[in-house]
Design goal:
The chain is mostly helical. The chain has one domain. It is built from four helices and no strands. The longest helix has 37 residues. The chain is elongated, with a radius of gyration of 17 Å.
Length: 104
Amino acid sequence: MPVTDLVKWWEKRRWIYNLVLLGSLSLLISYHIPFRVYVFYFVLANVLYTGGWAIEVLLLTFFRNYRNFFGRFRPWLFIFGCVLTLLFFIYAAWVSYRWQMENF
């Protein structure tokens, strides 16, 4: 698979990732966190998403014999990334809640 097809595969699914991200960010809304924190989390998560396909491009560059291997696991890596993002923001919501309870 050419690099452009690989990037297209990931970018076609970015909207799903952003929906998961918006859903998980909605957990933070009830904790009265400033809007700039939401923007920071959203931008950071999208940079990390881009890092996912960038790492795959690097791996395919160095391990050309494993092209089929990476292709088979790409959907699972996408799902894993979405779940990991959701868990991260659930944890961030919990930390924010604990911090507010201790400081206010």
